């Protein structure tokens, strides 16, 4: 097995990766692991639980299940647009037929970025539609594309801007000092900031200039260590301050109702409805019998079609997107249970309820 890399255009052929925006595709590209196999190599085995999503790039793979049934998937086929046997534990063994290359992603990270991207999309729609944000759209949207926010649970994205406090500062004003304890971080709304560090007894050394929409000060909040640099205003400007308690609150997972597969089956038998929040392409590939497909990126628009008198069981592959969906639907007054760990963590319990098409 050898490793290489691929470009973004190829990623856009895969489901559900094709639902990501360009910026998030760039982030996902950094997470890729491309592997090559020779004929006879095993990509994964029946029963494996490796939390990995695998797409076929080239060649042909044979899948054999516990009954001995065999089928092949060739690169370029419709089946190759979807992950290879993505439900875990793996329901078959995959073996290379000739030379094969695949790309691998951590399943939890992939589902997290899908959830984050679609949640941020709601916020961007609100920003563009609200005239009150007319002068703030550029820096707000740039902020939402910051990799720092991949640490923020997608459900919390909607509350980011309500926690920020605007302050105007003058050129030359020192905002944070190297060595100090951290009690907040900042986003640069207007102006330019200079980052400098002290090395030994000499004069501070300028190491970077920060522009509108950029963060600073968050590293010390995340690490708990003193500030590692001094930041001063290079021009007059406006900073948005986020205090430590608000920063910590943004990183905390919201409280939602979760249940494992056996318990949600009991709820379904009592009348709860399955709600698949994955993309329509994923739903068409495989879903739970009787489920309604309402992808996360259109959920807020279509939630009015749901019955407030019913209980819904939201699910996706890992639980990340369904957790975000539950938060949105809860705010809309609906009763929602999340399938804990998603389909991947409940494959044994739910396998007989899965159907295609």
From TrEMBL:
<dbReference type="InterPro" id="IPR036873">
    <property type="entry name" value="Rhodanese-like_dom_sf"/>
</dbReference>
<dbReference type="Pfam" id="PF00581">
    <property type="entry name" value="Rhodanese"/>
</dbReference>
<dbReference type="InterPro" id="IPR014710">
    <property type="entry name" value="RmlC-like_jellyroll"/>
</dbReference>
<dbReference type="InterPro" id="IPR000595">
    <property type="entry name" value="cNMP-bd_dom"/>
</dbReference>
<dbReference type="GO" id="GO:0003700">
    <property type="term" value="F:DNA-binding transcription factor activity"/>
</dbReference>
<dbReference type="InterPro" id="IPR001763">
    <property type="entry name" value="Rhodanese-like_dom"/>
</dbReference>
<feature type="domain" description="Cyclic nucleotide-binding">
    <location>
        <begin position="148"/>
        <end position="251"/>
    </location>
</feature>
<feature type="domain" description="Cyclic nucleotide-binding">
    <location>
        <begin position="16"/>
        <end position="114"/>
    </location>
</feature>
<dbReference type="Pfam" id="PF00027">
    <property type="entry name" value="cNMP_binding"/>
</dbReference>
<dbReference type="InterPro" id="IPR018490">
    <property type="entry name" value="cNMP-bd_dom_sf"/>
</dbReference>
<protein>
    <submittedName>
        <fullName>Cyclic nucleotide-binding domain protein</fullName>
    </submittedName>
</protein>
<feature type="domain" description="Rhodanese">
    <location>
        <begin position="268"/>
        <end position="348"/>
    </location>
</feature>
<dbReference type="GO" id="GO:0005829">
    <property type="term" value="C:cytosol"/>
</dbReference>
<dbReference type="InterPro" id="IPR050397">
    <property type="entry name" value="Env_Response_Regulators"/>
</dbReference>
